[in-house]
Amino acid sequence: MAYILGLASQKGGVGKSTLARLIAREAAQAGLSVKIADLDTAQTTSVKWAARRAEAGIEPEVRAEVMRSVKTGLSEAAGFDLYIFDGAPHSSRQTLEVAQAADMVVIPTGEGIDDLEPAVVLAHDLRAGGVDPERITFALCLVADSEREIEGARSYLSKTPYHVLDGEIPFRASFKIALDKGRAITETNFKTLTQRADLVAQGIIDAMEQAAERSVA
C-alpha cells in the first residue's frame, strides 16, 4: 500500500514543487518506487523537471505525470511505495481532497508574514475540512539568511496545533540552477547547502514515519 504525501500551498513561490521533487528524489535514491502526481496543470513544474532529469540521464529516475484529478492519481497510487501529490499553487476544493487522502500534508512557507498568514489559514481550512492536525506539517522554505526572522517564523507557527519541521531551505541561486538541470536540491556541488536540504528531507521522512505509526496504532 502506498504512502501518500500531499504538498499544498495557498500561494505560489513558496517551494511546494521544490519539496515534492526533493522527497521524490530521496525516496527513489533509497530504492522506493515513487511517483509525483502534478496537479498544477497550468505550469506542470514537476513533470517538466522529471523530463529534464530523464533527458540528462540523471539517476535515480523520478516519474511524474500531470493529473487532472485526485481520484485519477489515487486509482494508481497502490502501485508505488510513495505517491506524491504536488498540488496547484492555490487553495481549492482539490487541495482539501489531497489532504483528506494523504497520510501527511506538508505546507511550505517563507519567513515573512505575507507567507505565514496564508499558510496557517490553509492549515486551519484543512482542519475544518476534517483533516487531522497531526497530519499537517509546515516547512520553512526559500527563506532569507536572517536567523532572527527565521526564529520569528518558528515562534509564529509554534502557536498553531501543527508540526513544524526542523531546518529550512534557504533561497539560493544554486538550488534554482540544480532544478533547472533536472536535479533535486540535494544534488548541488555545495556540501553545506546539501546538508541543509538533507535535514529538511529527513524531517519529512521522520514525520511520515511517525504519522504512519499513529495510523497503525
What does the model show?
With 217 residues, the chain is of the alpha/beta class. It is 48% helix and 19% strand. It has eight helices and seven strands. The protein has helices at 16-29, 45-55, 70-77, 93-101, 113-128, 147-158, 173-180, 191-216; strands at residues 3-7, 34-38, 63-66, 82-86, 104-109, 136-143, 163-170. It has a seven-stranded parallel sheet, with helices on both faces. Helix 5 links the parallel strand 5 (104-109) and strand 6 (136-143). Helix 1 (16-29) packs across helix 8 (191-216). The mean pLDDT is 94.
Structural key phrases:
217 residues; alpha/beta; 7-stranded parallel beta sheet; 8 helices
Helix-strand blueprint:
Blueprint: E1 3-7, H1 16-29, E2 34-38, H2 45-55, E3 63-66, H3 70-77, E4 82-86, H4 93-101, E5 104-109, H5 113-128, E6 136-143, H6 147-158, E7 163-170, H7 173-180, H8 191-216
Helix pairs in contact: 1-8
Number-wise, the strands total 7
Major sheet summary line: 7 strands, parallel
As a percent range, the share of strand residues is 15-25%
Give the overall shape, derived from the CA principal axes.
globular
SS class: alpha/beta
- Mean of residue pLDDT? 94
**Strand sequence of the main sheet, in spatial order?**
3-2-4-1-5-6-7
End-to-end separation: 17 Å
Query: Would you identify the regions where 5 or more consecutive residues have pLDDT less than 50?
Result: none
Q: List the helices and strands in order.
A: EHEHEHEHEHEHEHH
Counting H and I runs of at least 4 residues, what is the number of helices?
A: 8
Q: From the alpha-carbon coordinates, what is the Rg to the nearest angstrom?
A: 16 Å
Helix content percent band: 40-55%
